[in-house]
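Subject: Sanity check before I submit

Could someone independently write out the structure tokens for this chain? I want to compare against mine line by line before I put it in a report. The sequence has 234 residues.
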Amino acid sequence: MKNVLVVEDELIIRQGLKVLLEAISRDIRVWEAKSGEEGMMRVRQQIPHLIITDIRMGGMDGLAFISKVRQVSQDVPVIILSGHSDFEYARSALKYGVTDYLLKPVNRVELSNVITNIFKDKEEESYTDVSGQFQKILHYVHDHIGQEVTLKHIADHMFLHPQYIGQLFKSELNQTFTDYLTDERLKRAKNLLKNTNLKVYEVAQLSGYKSPKHFMSLFKQEVGLTPKEYRKLS
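---
Independent answer below. Compare away.
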């Protein structure tokens, strides 16, 4: 559910926007505020996914409101509403990181297009952030493959929750963390068996297994050959 805060001092316009927004998507929940002051109370309680605000209001005007919003969040998208005579005034709002502006009366199709693009861009940014984060996790695993690696170790290094990291492995690779770690350790072991003359217990240690017996049992179970048999066939 996307929370959209509408800040508008004219009741008819505010309610009209609410109707338009709810018609655009069932996933939109509209919060209403009749002034910049009331809007800030809402923002401080919970940051919405999008803010739509009039530029000219009694009391705290749109620019002052947006300025205060940016003290709380630099990321929340903001759409401003303005009349034709407010164009220069609205343009000055761009320095506050306004995402877009719409002229009154608001056109439903134009509003729909703007909102769709905003949410699409935010989702792509979120995906990019998660992908970059996950790549760092994978690099950490690869760099420590010969050592003890747990979700807690990764979480402490990345300042994330272990459960969240486990969920990332499922969503990004469709694998559990344990299965991924086993696959990577066995890849390391196969490479060492094929390209070095290291003893099996040394291969086990360099692949992250303290117990050679456990390593040999797991290798046989997963590969179908003992480490020595695999080496001979490689």
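---
OP: Matches mine. For the report I'm noting this point. The chain has a mean pLDDT of 91.
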